Amino acid sequence: MIGPAEGLQFELALETGPTMDLAWGHCVLRFQAEAVWSGEDAAGRETALRWTWVDLLEFLARNWPWLVLEESYPIPVTPLFPGSLRREAEHRWESGDLPEETIDREDEAVYRFLCRHDLAMALTGLFVPSLILMRQGNQYLVSCPALGFNVLRPYREIIDTLTALGDRLAAAVADSPQPRAKLANALWQERSARLWAQVVPLRTGLQPAWLEQLAGDTAANDDWEIDPEQPDADTELLAAARMSTGHISIDNQRTLLQRLRAAPPTQSPALDALSARLSSDFSEIGRPFEQGYWLADWLRGALSLAPDEPAHPAELLKQWGVTVDPISLPQCALEAIAAWGPRHGPVILLNQAANQQTEQVKPANLYRERSTLAHEICHLLIDRERALPVAEVLGGGAPEYAEKRARAFAAEFLLPRKSAAAVIRSAATLTAAIGQLQQRFQVSRELTAWQVTNSSAFTALSPEEQALLSEIRLAGSAEYRH
Q1: Which residues pair with 393 in a beta bridge?
Q2: IrrE N-terminal-like domain: which residues (predicted)?
Q3: How many CB atoms lie within 10 A of CB 414?
Q4: 251 with 213: CB under 8 angstroms?
């Protein structure tokens, strides 16, 4: 048995004798005690698959850098789990807005991504259900579309299981005269050196030409602060580059990295203590928006904030020792960049240029800033040990699972649905209620409309009132949609 029963587990029985040269044997792959790869006998009972498992060793060895380091999808879609990547890609392609050559290029990129992350791709000539693994911070996203599950598991657990499996298979073929076995074993023994060569490209998502441009500026290029003892550990600079790539110009990215590099590490004991309390109470189950609502309710309770009492994110962050500073990144949609790793921060850089680009009036800027800071509070409280261990870029390529949770948290923390429903039921008109909620809780009309829509009062509204809420939501963004 390789791997824990509650996670990824291989039940492996290798044969001895001549068939050992290619690691022939029997295997059942289970995930959380459910068989993913197995056969069955004539009576329908589960049996192990007989195969040459050198295939699996070769897959792990060739794809090790990507399995360990790659956190970004290859095209601009944001599925919650990698099992939905192709479906979301096809939805994007069916929009009719992309030229055929772009679709062909993206189709190949998706295929190559799955070839790196789907364990089923290892077994050439044997059909087994897909089991797709993708890193997300200190976790792995695990998808099995055939069995309908998408699960989060600890990063170290998955890596330890795959390492033990690779070591077992490599030991089995160490003396094999077969060329395939020799190559697979050699690739496995060289995996650490090959991983080192891929750390910066895979962790930043930057193309070589872009990396060369950053290399021209000494202040933006040193060693990305990578720990030589832990090349798979993220850094604030790597994470900021990865999540801003594709959303920002080279000049803005250089400015961003310089600012983060200059941010010193600071102590935040009150925040750390609160985060530890929360982690002991929190279970990462249910849909992300449900988790976000729960987290907001927990924090309001911990702060003794009544449902009808407004929250003040900036004051909280100041009390917790989190620095909030402005940064100007023109011509990009990034709202904020936050870092909270061992070398920099906790610090939140608010992109003032984002507000200037949208020509928002002062109250709207205030509402936007409050929402942004509430969003980052969620990450600071719960994601430093999970999906975002060192940094986050709001408006960039941050993991969608954590972003959905943080968006719901921000909305609920700033304007609890219970309070929205109470005002809706007591106000003379819906318009008056929206104005009252905005003024009391200092939030945008869009956020207010979404919280009313998601509240218990929505179904009691007339069709005309529901249509008005829809109009307000559409006039803004879909930021708070589940």
Answers
A1: 337
A2: 366-448
A3: 25
A4: no
Instruction: Dig out the tokens for 466 from the structure.
Output: 């529901």
Residue spans of beta strands (DSSP E) within 254-328: 323-327
Strand stretches in 395-447, DSSP E? none
Among candidates 71, 148, 149, which has minimal Cα distance to 117?
71
Mean pLDDT in residue range 236-254 = 93
Helix, strand, coil percentages, rounded to 5, for the chain: 55, 15, 35
Residue with token string 């800071």: 373
Q: How far is CA 283 from CA 126, 190, 250, 369, in A?
A: 37, 38, 40, 29
For 318-346, what is the HEC assignment? HHCCCEEEEECCCCCCCCEEEECCCCCEC
Helix (H), strand (E) at residue 223? none
Transcribe 437-450 into DSSP letters: HHHHHT--HHHHHH
Hunting for tokens 């939501």 — which residue is that? 473
DSSP state of 306: -
Question: Which stretches does DSSP call E strand in 233-329?
Answer: 323-327
Sign, Cα dihedral of 71, 74, 77, 81: negative
CA dist., res. 83 & res. 87, Å (int): 8
Look up residue 337 and give its two tokens. Answer: 């960049």
Helices then strands, counting H and E runs in the chain, come out as: 19, 13
Write the pLDDT tens digit of every residue in 338-378: 999 999 999 999 998 865 544 454 566 899 999 999 999 99
Distance of CA 8 to the CA centre of its chain: 20
Number of Cβ within 10 Å of residue 198's Cβ equals 16
| Length of the chain as a residue count | 482
Token pair for residue 99? 């030229």
